[in-house]
Amino acid sequence: MSTQTPPLAPSQAAPLRVALVGNPNCGKTALFNQLTGSRQKVANYAGVTVERKAGRLLTPAGRKVTVLDLPGTYSLAATSPDEAVTRDVCRGVYKSEPAPDLLISVVAATNLRLHLRFMLELRQLGRPMLVVLNMVDAMRKQGLDIDVPRLQAELGVPVVTAVGVKRGGAANLLAALDTPIPPAPTPLPAGTDLHHEVRRIMALCVARTSERRQALEEKLDRWVLHPVWGMCILFVLLFIMFQAVFSWAQPFMDFLEEAMKQLGDFVGTLLPSGALQSLIVDGVIAGAGTVIVFLPQILILFLWILALEESGYLPRAAFMLDKLMASAGLSGRSFIPLLSSFACAVPGIMSTRTIQNPRDRMVTILIAPLMTCSARLPVYALLIGAFIPARRIGGIFNLQGLVLFALYGLAILSALLVARVMKRRDVEEHPLLLELPNYRLPGLQSLAIELWQRARIFLSRVGSIIVTLSVIMWALSSFPAPPAGATGPAIDYSLAGRIGHIMLPLFLPLGFNWQICVALIPGLAAREVAVSALATVYSVGASEADAASQLTPLLANQWSLATALSLLAWYVYAPQCFSTLAVIRRETGSWRFVAISAGYLFGLAYGVAFLTYHITRLITG
Amino acid sequence: MTQLLIVGLLVLLCAAYWLQRLVPAATAPFWRGIAGALHNTRFLPGLRLKAERLSSPSGAQGCGGCKGCDKNGGCH
């Protein structure tokens, strides 16, 4: 197959504004990343991009280009907030922003029948446009061939080929951007049947060169989408994921724990005894070091999520869970935003823009914080490590992994129950229309890059949020010094001690001590900070210098099982971090929803932690 | 004494960092001052640009101070 670059005149000097437009999951963001060097999130399912993104590039001939990456849509008749962005940008009515100079219609060569229809709809706008035939490598593997010159002639606009996920895969597009803007195509006569036009063009331009490879995918789908086996596969995948989080990560965590201990000892001997040494050892290393230890677990969790995202399995899981979601009054369309919330509630809440029904969208926004975000993992891991023995059940299952799985399950169940309560007066079922992408073997390189990005983001959080909060926590725990003749521990006289004791009456019914109360405050900035805050408070208050590196056994000795389980229950529902509250405000445009969200989660957290504490005490005596 | 001074400075810096994240409007006058001072100079162009951006509360807003969302491969 040949690639046709439009025969246009030499490049212009003026900056060019182009917009990548197309159906969901056609590879717009992969192309955007290729063109601009950006690292926007890409995945193998529809609805990853929900906002207009802008990037700049310089073409090989030196032309400046501003590229807009728009959310995918099936038509210009928008039915959800993300689709409205695309519609408005294409029509040139988006928030006082001029219309793009050139619409780049991205179509997946593997799904031409669906994508060409939207391309023809775009063409009716009468704006200059260029078609990018993306995923031509996958198309060849499917045994298809497209006559590009013929397609170009039939569409009346330049067509270039691309492979968005391969390095250099956008070279033809870059070359096309160096040429002058093509003239706007003449719209088709009013009343033209676009579906009929697509079939006509496909009959002329698309040929099958070999037998369908789809057979394997269809066989897989027969299992994966089976009402019984499909659910079993989903359950087993999730189960193994949580087992892996504990089993695979342990050696790496032991190594990091030992490294942090060595670092603390080394700095302790390097600096003279005093405030600075205490700040570095008890504040920074004890605080941030305790959280860094959980990096392997977080990366293993993300490895699974990323592999599932890339494989094309996630939309199938959404399809499988549609019935379950419907029982809670939601549609399978809420599944992807809720699943994204397992990484962090902020992008999860933003991706609710793909939900058309406004009420469904609001309910999904309100329950998204119940999904266990990765920031809660260090808290869970610390408490499970301290109180749940690392023994095997039936010789196969790791008990700690089972408890983690149960905590995630409890959060999911609670979210569905809350949704059911919120939608008790509106239980009409909305049919789920979902595009199932082709299966794809996750690329090792892209997985490695994504994991590296995750590690960088986590470490930069440790280096900024957690270190700064640990320093503040250390200062609050160290000053003021106890008065002359004081008999109690010095930390009791510190600001942190006083704040903790003021909060204690409210949280004593949950079995929390004053140290936990203090740790809850910085935990509002980011939940994992609660771990570093506990490490700092116990480290400053401890008589031994190395108490920081021994937080797990220290908690196991000082807390009762009832307190630990109560704190775990608290963190299943814990009120959100500030970032989540801010994004709820932004997405709903209302403080009312922020208040509802914070209020009901605080109530749930308090109620369930209270019950957990007292029931455990009854059972354990 | 030196140790206490260094510790005090570090704690102040961390407190300022969180003030900027949580209440950007409170730090806007400070950034306006910096931007004004650097306005007619050629020194520290990066700091000048940052100060100009942060001197208006709207320029400093992110997701509650979470500026990492949807950049570099997602959030957090």
UniProtKB/TrEMBL annotation, chain A:
<dbReference type="GO" id="GO:0005525">
    <property type="term" value="F:GTP binding"/>
</dbReference>
<keyword id="KW-0472">Membrane</keyword>
<keyword id="KW-0410">Iron transport</keyword>
<feature type="binding site">
    <location>
        <position position="33"/>
    </location>
    <ligand>
        <name>Mg(2+)</name>
    </ligand>
</feature>
<dbReference type="GO" id="GO:0015093">
    <property type="term" value="F:ferrous iron transmembrane transporter activity"/>
</dbReference>
<feature type="transmembrane region" description="Helical">
    <location>
        <begin position="591"/>
        <end position="615"/>
    </location>
</feature>
<keyword id="KW-0460">Magnesium</keyword>
<feature type="binding site">
    <location>
        <begin position="22"/>
        <end position="29"/>
    </location>
    <ligand>
        <name>GTP</name>
    </ligand>
</feature>
<dbReference type="GO" id="GO:0005886">
    <property type="term" value="C:plasma membrane"/>
</dbReference>
<dbReference type="Pfam" id="PF07664">
    <property type="entry name" value="FeoB_C"/>
</dbReference>
<feature type="binding site">
    <location>
        <begin position="69"/>
        <end position="72"/>
    </location>
    <ligand>
        <name>GTP</name>
    </ligand>
</feature>
<feature type="domain" description="FeoB-type G">
    <location>
        <begin position="15"/>
        <end position="183"/>
    </location>
</feature>
<keyword id="KW-0479">Metal-binding</keyword>
<keyword id="KW-0342">GTP-binding</keyword>
<protein>
    <recommendedName>
        <fullName>Ferrous iron transport protein B</fullName>
    </recommendedName>
</protein>
<feature type="binding site">
    <location>
        <begin position="134"/>
        <end position="137"/>
    </location>
    <ligand>
        <name>GTP</name>
    </ligand>
</feature>
<dbReference type="InterPro" id="IPR011640">
    <property type="entry name" value="Fe2_transport_prot_B_C"/>
</dbReference>
<keyword id="KW-0812">Transmembrane</keyword>
<keyword id="KW-0813">Transport</keyword>
<feature type="binding site">
    <location>
        <position position="36"/>
    </location>
    <ligand>
        <name>Mg(2+)</name>
    </ligand>
</feature>
<feature type="transmembrane region" description="Helical">
    <location>
        <begin position="458"/>
        <end position="476"/>
    </location>
</feature>
<feature type="transmembrane region" description="Helical">
    <location>
        <begin position="362"/>
        <end position="390"/>
    </location>
</feature>
UniProtKB/TrEMBL annotation, chain B:
<feature type="region of interest" description="Disordered">
    <location>
        <begin position="56"/>
        <end position="76"/>
    </location>
</feature>
<protein>
    <submittedName>
        <fullName>Uncharacterized protein</fullName>
    </submittedName>
</protein>
<dbReference type="Pfam" id="PF20228">
    <property type="entry name" value="DUF6587"/>
</dbReference>
<dbReference type="InterPro" id="IPR046494">
    <property type="entry name" value="DUF6587"/>
</dbReference>
